[in-house]
Every structure is written in structure tokens, then in C-alpha cells.
Amino acid sequence: MNVKKVMVMGSGLMGSGIAQVCAQAGIEVILNDVSAEALDQAMKTIAWSVGKFAEKGKLSEDRETVMKRITATGDYAVGSDADLAIEAIYENMELKQEIFRKLDQICGPQTLIASNTSSIPITELAAATLRPEKVLGVHFFSPVPMMQAVEVIKGASTSDETAQTGRDFVLKIGKEPIMVNRDIAGFVINRINFPSTIEAMNLVEQGVATVEDIDKGLRLASGRKMGIFETGDMVGLDITYGAMMSIYKETATPDFIRPFCSGAKSRQAIWAGKPAGDGTRTTQTEPGKHKEKRKWDISRSIRRTSSLF
Ligand SMILES: NC(=O)c1ccc[n+]([C@@H]2O[C@H](COP(=O)([O-])OP(=O)(O)OC[C@H]3O[C@@H](n4cnc5c(N)ncnc54)[C@H](O)[C@@H]3O)[C@@H](O)[C@H]2O)c1
């Protein structure tokens, strides 16, 4: 199937980026959110970012042509004839399953339903629908307009045809598909990256190096555009925590949650890269402006992780 119309559920950091790259590739986009404010903010952010791409000569069209392809709405039904629905709402199993049930009821039989989850098994989301063979993971990386890799994940029931359409879609939007043939926690890239994130936290905690030097070293020695702690700040600790927790649950390897359980020093290490330094996640929503986004409730997460031992 050639994907020509996409519905994106959730217009936050990831959903707005996904809507942007689809529209830039000539795909019609229905961008949905429960919050009118979030939709409004997303449209402003997308317009600004598309404008930057146009200014740099990276687009063959002007900003208005790209923006006209995106319809922002709180109404699900508008996207019922989409070829592909991509869910990018909060990382919460119950909320996501509810959306998957709704999409399954509303969308036509041809619609593939995908999740951008970092950590929730695709197979469990597929189980909320009557079309598990048409459910897949498409895991984008932040910032979506810049990052080239997208993991395409097969759940236990995902058909080969669905996975192939996912792959073709990723190529169509000018990105590179990384095929994940089995639905394992953390998929492939996070599964490989997280052990170094944890080691970086351990090194800060042990006083071996500072957050700033580790980030600088990784940028200069490993060719990364951003250090490990800078990346963690952008992604959000709640998402990192959720993904590490799901790997821990699957592998029973305590290393994956130790930084979240082992006392004040570790917590400082995890937070030290943040501009506010107090666990407040910030995100750039407009040029030059940082908006407070979400508070990381460390005491609650410590209670949750401690109860596992
Ligand atoms: N942040 C990252 O770097 C990153 C990277 C890869 C994957 N992800 C995954 O992408 C998903 C979204 O993450 P994010 O950082 O963009 O979150 P976010 O908090 O920035 O945005 C989530 C949006 O979903 C909306 N929403 C909540 N419930 C909804 C509903 N029922 N219907 C429609 N909209 C709803 C919210 O209003 C909000 O605007 C998560 O599953 C996360 O794990 C995040």
C-alpha cells in the first residue's frame, strides 16, 4: 500500500515532528489531540520548523504548501479513511490501549495502526484491536525532523505485508527503516544505547567525570551531535525511565533500573544535565523560548521501583 494519508494521534514533541515530516513528503496529515492548546502550539512549532527547512533550501516547496497538508483537529472521525494512523500520546498502556480500541472502531478496514511507543509491547497494543495483523511499531527518534532512523517493529501478529508497508512509508518520508523482527523491550537502538546511559550515570555518581565532560567527550570522540545527558533531557526522564523499566521487566537485569533506585547522588547525576537542575523537563516550543513541560515525580518513581525488590 502506498501511504497517502496519515492520522497522527497526539501533537506533542513526537506527534508534531511526525506530522511535519509526513507533510514535507507530500502526505496528507490529520493531526489529532485532546488539547486544543497543544494543537495550536504544534501548528506554530511545525510552521516555524518547516520555514527553517525552506530557508536552508532543503525543501522543494514553500512553507504554505506544506502546511496546507496538515489539518489540526480534536475529532477522530476526520481521519477514519487514513491509510496509516500513528499514535504518539503519553506513554501509558491503558491510555494507548483505549486509543487503539477507538481507532480500530473508527478507521476503515484498510487502515494500519501504528504506535510510536518507546517501551510498550506492540503485541499488547495490537491485542486491543480486532486487526492485530495490521498493527505495528514505528519508533521515531527525537528531534524527528532531524533524525534519520525509524525502527519498524513487528508485533507477534503483525503480517509481513504490514511490516513491508511500514518500511515503504519510512522510505517515502525520506528516512531509513531499521527493521525490528521481534517485539522485544527497548527494541534495538535503545536496547543498545541504554547500557551506556547507565554507565554514564554511574561514572558521574562515582565522581569520575562531570556531566558536562561526559557529554563533551561523547560529542567530540564518538561523533554524536548531542551528549548522553543532553539527549536524556530532550527525550524526558519519564520516557527513559519507562523504557528502562520495561527492559528490566523482560530481562530481569537490575542494571536497567539501578540508577533510579540508588539514592540521592544518582538522582542528582540523572538530573544534572537539566537547565533547571530540579527535575523539571523543559522543551523548546518556539524559537528562543523554553516552556515548562512536566515535573518528574522522583519520589513516586522511587516507590514504584523499590516495590519490585
Ligand atoms: N520524547 C521522545 O524523545 C520520544 C522518542 C521516541 C518515542 N517517544 C514516544 O512517543 C510518545 C509521545 O511522546 P512525546 O514526548 O511526544 O509526548 P508529549 O507529552 O510531548 O505529547 C503527548 C501528547 O498527547 C496528547 N494526548 C494525550 N492523550 C491523548 C488522547 N487520548 N488523544 C489524543 N491526544 C492525546 C497530549 O495532549 C500531548 O499533546 C510516547 O509514547 C513516547 O514514549 C518519545
Q: What is the structure about, briefly put?
A:
With 309 residues, the chain is of the alpha/beta class.
Describe, in plain words, how this protein is organized in 3D.
The protein has 309 residues and is of the alpha/beta class. It folds into 2 domains: 5-180, NAD(P)-binding Rossmann-like Domain (Rossmann fold), CATH 3.40.50.720; 191-308, N-(1-d-carboxylethyl)-l-norvaline Dehydrogenase, domain 2. 46% of the residues lie in helices and 17% in strands. The protein has an 8-stranded mixed β-sheet, sandwiched between helices. Strands 9-10 form a two-stranded antiparallel sheet. A hairpin with a 2-residue loop joins strand 9 (280-286) and strand 10. Nicotinamide-adenine-dinucleotide binds at residues 9-15, 32-35, 38, 88-91, 95, 99, 116-118, 140, 142, 235-236, 239.
Secondary structure blueprint with pairings:
Elements: E1 5-9, H1 13-24, E2 28-32, H2 36-55, H3 63-67, E3 70-73, E4 84-87, H4 93-106, E5 112-115, H5 122-126, E6 135-140, E7 149-154, H6 160-172, E8 176-180, H7 189-205, H8 211-222, H9 228-235, H10 237-251, H11 258-261, H12 264-271, E9 280-286, E10 289-295, H13 298-306
Parallel strand pairs: 1-2, 1-4, 2-3, 4-5, 5-6, 7-8
Antiparallel strand pairs: 6-7, 9-10
Strand order of the main beta sheet, please? 3-2-1-4-5-6-7-8
The span between the termini is 47 Å
Bound molecules: nicotinamide-adenine-dinucleotide
Task: State the assembly state of the protein chains.
Answer: single chain
- Rg result: 19 Å
According to CATH, what is the topology of the largest domain?
A: Rossmann fold
The CATH superfamily of the largest domain is known as NAD(P)-binding Rossmann-like Domain
- Shape label: globular
Provide the β-strand percentage band. Answer: 15-25%
